[in-house]
Fold this protein.
Amino acid sequence: MQGPLIETLARQGVTRRTFMKFCATLASAMALPPSAGRAMAEAMAAAPAASKRPSVIWLPFQECTGCTESITRSHSPTLEGLIFDVISLDYQETLMAAAGHQAEEALHAAMAANDGKYLLIVDGSIPLGLDGAYSCIAGKSNLETLKEVAKGAAAIVAMGSCAAYGGLPHANPNPTGAVSVSDIIKDKPIINIPGCPPIPTVITGVLAHFLTFGSLPELDKHGRPKAFYGETIHDRCYRRPFYDQGKFAKTFDDQGARNGWCLFELGCKGPVTYNACATVKWNGGTSWPVESGHGCLGCSEPDFWDAGGFYKALSMPADPLKLAAKAAVVGAAAGVAVSFVNRGKKSAAKSAHETTTLADLEK
Amino acid sequence: MNEIQLLTWVRGDGLDYAVGIFLLGVIWRLFEIYSLGRKKDLSASRSVAGASGWHTIFRRSLPPAGMVKKSPVSYIGGYTFHIGLAIVVFLFAPHILLIQSLTGLSWPGLPSQFIDLAAVVTMAAMVVVLADRINKPVKRYLSTFGDWFTWTVTFLPVLTGWMAVQHLLLPYTTMLALHILSVEVLLVVLPFTKLFHAFTLFGSRWYNGTVNGHKGVAV
Amino acid sequence: MPLDAIPVVAVPPGLRAGELSGNAPALLREIAEMVRRLLSEGETSAIDLQALPLTPADLEWLREQLGEGEIAVTLNADGESSLNETACPGVWWVTHRNPKGAVVSEFLEVAFVPELVKAHQDDVVIGLEHLELLISDLS
Amino acid sequence: MSASLEKGVRVLKEVIDAPIASYFSSCVHCGLCAEACLFYTETGDPKYTPIHKLEPMRRLYEQEYTLLGRLKKMVGLSKPVTDAELGEWQELVYNSCTLCGRCSAVCPVGNDIVYMVRKFREGMSASGNAPDGIKGAANRTITIGSPMGVKLPAVKAQMKHVEEDYGIPIPLDAEGTEYMVMLSSMEIINFPEYLGAIAKIMKQAGKTWTLCSTAFEATNAGMQIGNSDLARVIVSRIVEGAEKLKVKTVISPECGHAYTALRWEGANLVGRPFTFQVKHIIEVLGEFQEQGLLKTEGFETDKLTFHDPCQLARRGGVIEPQRKLMKMVAQNFVEMPDAGYMNWCCGGGGGASAIEEGEELRLEAFKKKKSQLDAVKPDRLVTACANCRIVLEEGLEHYQMDIPVIGLTEMIAEHIPDQTQSEGA
């Protein structure tokens, strides 16, 4: 196992053993067999010189740069970010030094040089309103750019909930007409890495998988890698036993909250959210939302913004009595109307009554 | 529509409509039924302790002497599934939370393991009652589409709720959405099917008790 | 207000922790098979303990069964890792921790010497270069 | 000759009220009412399930008085009620229902099924679907004065007989008496001892009483057939008679339906509260017993049991007095299973005994009574309803059971010492 990456890492003070340990842990996180860890380490370590590294184009659309922040500011930048040493990141507005025409040239050069082979990463949603005028780069709408760049891509990674499902811009009433990558591109393999932002390890893991095996990992029906999104937050949550015992924090500062009881009643969306936060955790395994005392927002699920309020328990509907008053009035009106008709009918029958005589018993 | 959208709809608009139709239906039906009125009884009454509409409302919850033996499945199965439903509906923590959000009223719930047991027992009792309806000549003879239909719409919320909690068949989110949806179906059909007995049985018992109480018969 | 003034205490749920899942005994048989292959074909292999549905009690049981061997290796690389031989030579209990001390992955490795313990040829070359530098400094 | 479906439907629309609407809306098809009905328990035929006997009326209710039912009818999901269907239902509404009220007593949602059958009969009779047997009885009651065709001269002859036998004068049309005694035809023809018994009892109690020449017949075939107009004609005679004679209390004879017709339906039929009280003879005897006005001597020594007439006990609330009276004169009084409030019907109440074509079914249903009797094996059977008595005798004869049936009033009278008679005379 040798190559430019190891040398680069060594220069940054990362030893070979540290790298191997990282790969083993990454494989474990992705539910790959232990042998895959070594394979990944070897594949990445053997990454060729800069000119031959796989080309990656990163297109930012309607986004907040949170996804980029997530990976570049992860706890151990050298390790999580080492993936960038394996790839040739030919276009990434936030990170690249070039700007303006230079940047555009770099993009088109990379597209031309690696046609059909480059990996396209997208973060942010694509606005369709006003012919896409809500978000333009170099005079082109995001829609145009996406279609153009996607054409030559080997695969597309939709990074973050916006690219994967439309995210915050897509939230009701969706003023920009934002849609996801998969709403537009239908003929390329797309992997969604939702989350607001996604867990850095997940990003690294997916890229490592692609680089090592040349394929995308197994996906669920929402296009997410099963290894990370296979189970709900609730099922892997360390507070789950409290849910089963019916012990719930009622407010953020009551004794239940101090005792670390279940946050279901405070609006935790853990039961309907598929993500790896509970096991992988954040900030290098320091903590994750529930451990910090806040319920899960459900950010890796489609349309989580519109799922009825972050602090409303899942069992609590938004406003079920909204129509109650109207319904009661209409019901009462209908009832009264029917009553009148019925009483009219009854008294008509009564007034039409002919006193029966014996003869009237016969037909 | 993905499952979160479905869940959002059933918890939002769907439930709004279902509750609306339910309330509308209940009020309308109550008017429709009770506005027909009845004639005043002109015969001299004979009052006896324990004979009145109110007495009958409570007394009819107990089986008359000897009847349990005659139709054990109806009584035991019936009690089991009605009580089971009450436990599952009113003592499961997420349900209490819903009621609290609607009414402000709250009470302690039961551990989920107990609710789980109650749900299973309820479903078992309902299946037994259904089998009885199929097997017993009288019940089969009386049964109409409405009987099978109302059994189904009552059974589904219990089944889907239980499956959601147990993570069976479908992802929790989808199951939860289906659970709420099935409750909505139940709410919508309740006022217009025999399930409306949940409301009218009080009126019926009261009338029966009153008419008989007038004669000094404790029914 | 200092942070420690906020009275937050985590009460360990401890419900599932104490129960054996019954998966651990099967693991012993698998390890035996892996050791046989190591002997007959020299093939090394590993089991990812986090990928299996094991409870803390299972792990404890396994640890007790396998026992403690003679060698305990500590690796300092982005957090401490321990590579300990069990009472069954050739079976190593490998635990990787992050710099904060939390377990990030855990394996049972079947090998004469764990992969990570061996020094890599390139590293040895670098080490030799360093030695030579030291020697040249002597003169 | 003017009965028609249209008329029947109109009458049903008139009588369907909030209780009926509530009952139909509450039924969950649990079938428990069947277990309470002797026509089902003895035949096992589910068509005799009480609530099923109301199916045409239920559909009519739904179609006429519910919005959804109207819609269902419009789109053809709910078939209109036809004359043929009502004809088919005649057996269920009349032959196999004695208005005994056991179903109403067990229904878990509280449906008073008998209340509905009674109302359904209004529509059945108005549409010409009442059985000939009861129609004949109604006809005779209205035109002749009694369902069995008994006229005043026959009553007078009976009075004369009794006066001779007992040596007590029988007052007729005496004004201002405390009691006006009613009879049922059966008592006039089959059980004349009843009148004598009354005379003895009244004499001992020192009460004034009278018969009424314009209203001696208490039974009301109009009510049995389910026609309020005819029932009103019959009951009005009694009201007029009682008011003319200014009596305080009218005594219903040992006849269940006569009691219901007079005590509970009467005021509603004439449309105003009565100015007099109505009591069943057993109630009156019970009062005499309580006030010490009834003195008996000696006891029956054989094993006796009591059959509670449905209209007296379950539908009339008189359950204890007859038991106290039995104990007054019987040493060996045993109760049948289910006796009292939940007693099983003789099988011939509510006009059913007048329906010839229903006889086979009636005898089949009598097996219930037979099993009750088999459980206690009495030497004699006492009751307080002349109709029950006839039906019981027929059934006992059919099943070759040698158990004589007697009326409670007569049995009590037999134990009233003769000296009282002579003292008074």
Observations:
- Chain C touches chain A through 33 residues (CB under 8 Å).
- Residues 18-138 of chain C form a domain with the Ribosomal Protein S8; Chain: A, domain 1 fold (CATH 3.30.1370.140).
- Confidence is low (pLDDT under 50) at residues 6-17 of chain C.
